[in-house]
């Protein structure tokens, strides 16, 4: 084994330089050229200020905004996480019942399944179309506008399944909320 | 219905991609010039010169094994050192602290053995230097080690008598330079364009629309995620792995990652056929793996779409793509997740546990899946030989007592590690504290963890406390068992076979390429797996399924 130590050590150093430094650094340099914003976590700006990432959920709670899916870690990002509760868990059944009641009370509509189950990442930036649509009346009321206007903004932010085959139709919460703010700004008291 | 069409298209793309890649790999491993040698040839020769390696030297199975062991041992030492010292090393913009000795041991073993079990959360606990020069490097070289050993074992079965098993250093280097690195660059670029971060900037501090403070984690993620999938590694840049919207932002990124997980393992089936100079042999292995893959996929798909629960699942993937990934990642020894398997239906969990516990042979790890399946091939032809009363043969070579003994020895590492390790873990109170849930699911969690470690998979029922010191240590040791207690006997089998004469095919030869052999091989895998693990599966996932059916919760 001893005569294998020299090739092993040299090889390890060479591979570290190649795959641990040259490769990731080259990719980082390339990313800066081909996708400067995407490669820095899709930070979204408003009035020149970073207000979040289009890919990371924010804990929206105001009546004038779309609300994200539940998060088992209260939308923590460092690190994020999930409930990891099994389908037979009594605790999970209790949480789902509570969320269902809260959703009904807030939105006056029955809750779609994505609105009562916590996401895998705890940071799911998207909700189902049914979930978004069911929140429109509440949002319209808070913003003092016609529900159809809110529905129109939501409809403009629906992402369809890839090739009609893969994934679910869905709505990005942060981008839709930004569009709502732009199309129908809330007065300072409008959120109440 | 459109789910199944999507699955069919996925399988077709995967098969075509694997077939094309096998052609490329054949060319690469023959060692002659290829389109990439104009650029990378000097790098390859430079590495050999610095390391004092003669690329022409053939190693025996012992030499090959020693080289692999020495390389992996030093890799472990380096990675352990980087993890323990990351707080004083550069490239640590978020100022993360030191990693405890047991967690560093667990993580270093995990990445060296191609398991990539994660008892830590990358975004909160690892510096960029640890992720790049520590984990990314082992993502490459542990995968290349598996591919190299896979090649040596294939040569043992297929190469003419008197030729060698190859040279570990050249097989490993060529795997990195001409297969893993080019594919990783392509995938990393695609992922960057889908929104996966690739930057050395630290986390972005933002004020949300409602005035809360939020840190958006970032880092050189795309480059690591690309090789994590292609090398069937599976260790995420972020803690929740490919469920994280920055690790796997879109449906397109999801499909690309899913394909990448199985691409090289599928290619290895066809590479086997090419090196055996009989493509049908490769198709037979592919068919046996494919049948078991599809059975698992149908069960998990039916369970997850039927349950209509999105607990632990991401909206963009829904039930169907979460089910697909769950089967892909446990069939391959990848272990990345795009949904939380702990929240899957009991029978979905059962499929995932079986995929891992039979030894990761349904496509399996890069290289490792094929040599794992050849273990079952040895046992299958032995059984066939017993049934017809002839000396078993495979590819013209006699399978005798030594090969069957070695194959059984390798096989036993799975039940030994999983059942005995798991049994201790549920009986010793310190260890049993890792269980999150009451009832049979608690046993499933432990069974999943031990299957994952011994099978070198790396995924988890993540509610289970993997970071407890007992578990980091026990699972670390079992990952070593699961990796090397299969590599060494399989290399020994290869060394034994290559010394045997290849006899010509006669009418009395049992054909190893038709439906009969494929059926026999599948049954060998399932019967050995079922007989070994059925009792504990009955107490875990099956009991859980029954409880759920009668509405009992825990």
Automatic annotation (TrEMBL), chain A:
<keyword id="KW-1003">Cell membrane</keyword>
<keyword id="KW-0812">Transmembrane</keyword>
<comment type="function">
    <text>Part of the high-affinity ATP-driven potassium transport (or Kdp) system, which catalyzes the hydrolysis of ATP coupled with the electrogenic transport of potassium into the cytoplasm. This subunit acts as a catalytic chaperone that increases the ATP-binding affinity of the ATP-hydrolyzing subunit KdpB by the formation of a transient KdpB/KdpC/ATP ternary complex.</text>
</comment>
<dbReference type="Pfam" id="PF02669">
    <property type="entry name" value="KdpC"/>
</dbReference>
<dbReference type="GO" id="GO:0008556">
    <property type="term" value="F:P-type potassium transmembrane transporter activity"/>
</dbReference>
<keyword id="KW-0067">ATP-binding</keyword>
<keyword id="KW-0633">Potassium transport</keyword>
<comment type="subunit">
    <text>The system is composed of three essential subunits: KdpA, KdpB and KdpC.</text>
</comment>
<keyword id="KW-0472">Membrane</keyword>
<protein>
    <recommendedName>
        <fullName>Potassium-transporting ATPase KdpC subunit</fullName>
    </recommendedName>
</protein>
<dbReference type="GO" id="GO:0005886">
    <property type="term" value="C:plasma membrane"/>
</dbReference>
<keyword id="KW-0630">Potassium</keyword>
<comment type="similarity">
    <text>Belongs to the KdpC family.</text>
</comment>
<keyword id="KW-0813">Transport</keyword>
<dbReference type="GO" id="GO:0005524">
    <property type="term" value="F:ATP binding"/>
</dbReference>
<dbReference type="InterPro" id="IPR003820">
    <property type="entry name" value="KdpC"/>
</dbReference>
<keyword id="KW-0406">Ion transport</keyword>
<keyword id="KW-1133">Transmembrane helix</keyword>
<keyword id="KW-0547">Nucleotide-binding</keyword>
TrEMBL record, chain B:
<feature type="transmembrane region" description="Helical">
    <location>
        <begin position="64"/>
        <end position="83"/>
    </location>
</feature>
<dbReference type="InterPro" id="IPR004623">
    <property type="entry name" value="KdpA"/>
</dbReference>
<keyword id="KW-0813">Transport</keyword>
<feature type="transmembrane region" description="Helical">
    <location>
        <begin position="369"/>
        <end position="388"/>
    </location>
</feature>
<feature type="transmembrane region" description="Helical">
    <location>
        <begin position="474"/>
        <end position="498"/>
    </location>
</feature>
<dbReference type="GO" id="GO:0005886">
    <property type="term" value="C:plasma membrane"/>
</dbReference>
<feature type="transmembrane region" description="Helical">
    <location>
        <begin position="344"/>
        <end position="363"/>
    </location>
</feature>
<keyword id="KW-0633">Potassium transport</keyword>
<feature type="transmembrane region" description="Helical">
    <location>
        <begin position="518"/>
        <end position="539"/>
    </location>
</feature>
<feature type="transmembrane region" description="Helical">
    <location>
        <begin position="283"/>
        <end position="303"/>
    </location>
</feature>
<keyword id="KW-0630">Potassium</keyword>
<comment type="similarity">
    <text>Belongs to the KdpA family.</text>
</comment>
<feature type="transmembrane region" description="Helical">
    <location>
        <begin position="175"/>
        <end position="193"/>
    </location>
</feature>
<feature type="transmembrane region" description="Helical">
    <location>
        <begin position="447"/>
        <end position="467"/>
    </location>
</feature>
<feature type="transmembrane region" description="Helical">
    <location>
        <begin position="409"/>
        <end position="435"/>
    </location>
</feature>
<feature type="transmembrane region" description="Helical">
    <location>
        <begin position="251"/>
        <end position="271"/>
    </location>
</feature>
<dbReference type="GO" id="GO:0030955">
    <property type="term" value="F:potassium ion binding"/>
</dbReference>
<feature type="transmembrane region" description="Helical">
    <location>
        <begin position="135"/>
        <end position="154"/>
    </location>
</feature>
<comment type="function">
    <text>Part of the high-affinity ATP-driven potassium transport (or Kdp) system, which catalyzes the hydrolysis of ATP coupled with the electrogenic transport of potassium into the cytoplasm. This subunit binds the extracellular potassium ions and delivers the ions to the membrane domain of KdpB through an intramembrane tunnel.</text>
</comment>
<keyword id="KW-0812">Transmembrane</keyword>
<keyword id="KW-0472">Membrane</keyword>
<feature type="transmembrane region" description="Helical">
    <location>
        <begin position="315"/>
        <end position="332"/>
    </location>
</feature>
């Amino acid at each position: 084994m001893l005569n294998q130590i020299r090739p092993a050590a040299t090889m390890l150093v060479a591979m570290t330089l190649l795959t641990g430094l040259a490769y990731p650094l080259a990719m980082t340099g390339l990313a800066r050229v081909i996708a400067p914003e995407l490669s820095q976590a899709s930070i979204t700006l408003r009035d020149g200020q970073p207000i979040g990432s289009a890919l990371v959920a924010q804990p929206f709670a105001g009546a004038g905004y779309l609300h994200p899916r539940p998060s088992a870690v209260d939308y923590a990002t460092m690190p994020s996480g999930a409930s990891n509760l099994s389908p037979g868990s009594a605790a999970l059944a209790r949480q789902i019942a509570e969320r269902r009641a809260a959703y009904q009370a807030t939105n006056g509509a029955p809750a779609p399944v994505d609105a009562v189950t916590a996401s895998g990442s705890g940071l799911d930036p998207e909700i189902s179309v049914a979930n978004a649509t069911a929140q429109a009346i509440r949002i319209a009321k808070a913003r003092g506008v016609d529900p159809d206007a809110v529905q129109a903004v939501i409809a403009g932010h629906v992402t369809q399944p890839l090739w009609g085959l893969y994934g679910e139709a869905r709505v990005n919460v942060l981008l839709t909320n930004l569009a709502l703010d732009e199309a129908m700004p809330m007065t300072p008291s409008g959120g109440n | 219905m459109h789910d199944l069409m999507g699955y069919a298209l996925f399988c077709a793309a995967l098969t075509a991609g694997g077939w094309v890649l096998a052609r490329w790999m054949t060319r690469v491993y023959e060692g002659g010039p290829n389109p990439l040698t104009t650029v990378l040839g000097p790098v390859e020769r430079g590495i050999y010169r610095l390391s004092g390696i003669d690329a022409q030297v053939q190693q025996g199975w012992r030499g090959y094994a020693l080289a692999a062991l020495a390389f992996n041992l030093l890799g472990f030492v380096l990675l352990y050192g980087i993890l323990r010292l990351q707080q004083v090393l550069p490239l640590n913009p978020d100022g993360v602290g030191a990693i405890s000795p047991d967690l560093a041991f667990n993580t270093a073993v995990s990445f060296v053995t191609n398991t990539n079990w994660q008892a830590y959360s990358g975004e909160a606990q690892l510096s960029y230097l640890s992720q790049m020069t520590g984990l990314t490097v082992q993502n490459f070289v542990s995968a290349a080690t598996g591919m190299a050993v896979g090649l040596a074992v294939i040569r043992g079965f297929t190469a003419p008598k008197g030729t060698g098993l190859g040279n570990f250093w050249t097989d490993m280097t060529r795997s990195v330079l001409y297969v893993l690195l080019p594919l990783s660059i392509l995938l990393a670029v695609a992922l960057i364009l889908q929104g996966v971060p690739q930057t050395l900037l630290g986390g972005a501090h933002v004020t949300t629309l409602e005035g809360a403070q939020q840190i958006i984690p970032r880092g050189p993620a795309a480059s690591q995620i690309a090789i994590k999938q292609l090398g069937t590694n599976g260790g995420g840049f972020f803690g929740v792995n490919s469920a994280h919207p920055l690790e796997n932002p879109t449906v397109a990124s999801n499909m690309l990652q899913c394909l990448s997980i199985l691409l090289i393992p599928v290619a290895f089936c066809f590479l086997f056929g090419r090196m055996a100079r009989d493509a049908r042999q490769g198709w037979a292995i592919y068919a046996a793996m494919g049948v078991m893959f599809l059975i698992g996929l149908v069960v998990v798909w039916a369970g997850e779409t039927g349950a209509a629960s999105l607990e632990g699942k991401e909206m963009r993937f829904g039930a169907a793509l979460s089910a697909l990934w769950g089967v892909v990642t446990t069939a391959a020894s990848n272990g990345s997740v795009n949904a939380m398997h702990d929240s899957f239906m009991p029978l979905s969990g059962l499929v995932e546990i079986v995929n891992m516990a039979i030894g990761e042979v349904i496509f399996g790890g890069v290289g490792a899946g094929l040599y794992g399946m050849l273990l079952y091939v040895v046992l299958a032809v032995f059984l066939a030989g017993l049934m017809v009363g002839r000396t078993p043969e495979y590819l013209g070579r006699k399978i005798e007592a030594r090969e069957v003994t070695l194959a059984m020895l390798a096989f036993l590492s799975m039940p030994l590690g999983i059942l005995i390790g798991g049994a201790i873990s549920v009986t010793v109170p310190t260890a049993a504290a890792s269980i999150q849930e009451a009832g049979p699911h608690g046993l499933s969690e432990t069974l999943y963890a031990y299957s994952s470690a011994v099978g070198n998979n790396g995924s988890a029922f993540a509610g289970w406390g993997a970071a407890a010191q007992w578990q980091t240590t026990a699972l670390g040791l079992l990952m070593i068992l699961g990796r090397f207690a299969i590599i060494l006997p399989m290399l020994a089998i290869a060394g034994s076979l290559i010394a045997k004469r290849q006899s010509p095919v006669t009418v009395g030869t049992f054909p190893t390429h038709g439906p009969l052999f494929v059926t026999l091989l599948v049954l060998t895998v399932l019967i050995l797996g079922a007989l070994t693990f059925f009792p504990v599966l009955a107490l875990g996932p099956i009991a859980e399924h029954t409880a759920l059916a009668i509405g009992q919760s825990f």
